[in-house]
Amino acid sequence: MAAYWVARAKINDPDQYKKYTDRVPAILQKFGAKILARGGKFQILEGPETFGRFVVVEFPSMEQAVACHDSPEYQEAAAFRKDGGGEVELVIVDGM
After folding, report:
1. Using an 8 Å Cβ cutoff, are 52 and 10 in contact?
2. pLDDT at 48 over 90
3. Topology of 3-94 in CATH?
4. pLDDT tens readout for residues 60-86
5. Which H or E run contains 59?
6. Helical H runs in the chain?
7. What's the pTM value of the predicted model, to 2 decimals?
8. Nearest Cα residue to 73 out of 31, 27, 7
9. 26: left (phi > 0), else alpha (psi -120 to 50), else beta?
10. What pLDDT does 18 receive?
């Protein structure tokens, strides 16, 4: 069953954040993921306007989604984001 990363992001340092986003597509591909939404136009219907970037990524399974997140490659890329590049809330949701 498919699983989805659903992320809300705030970019604090565009140059630092780009070091993260440049690396992520190849990592996702390695885990069989497909980017469904990344950035772009959005409308907040409820909740605070804390985040300005939204991402939805489909994985073949919950296990692949977790393995991708926990992989050394993703953690290395995420370090650029965590080191002042931005703030992210990320959840993994099982598909139906």
Report:
1. yes
2. no
3. Alpha-Beta Plaits (3.30.70)
4. 999 999 999 999 999 999 999 998 899
5. strand 53-59
6. 14-21, 24-30, 62-70, 72-80
7. 0.90
8. 27
9. alpha
10. 94
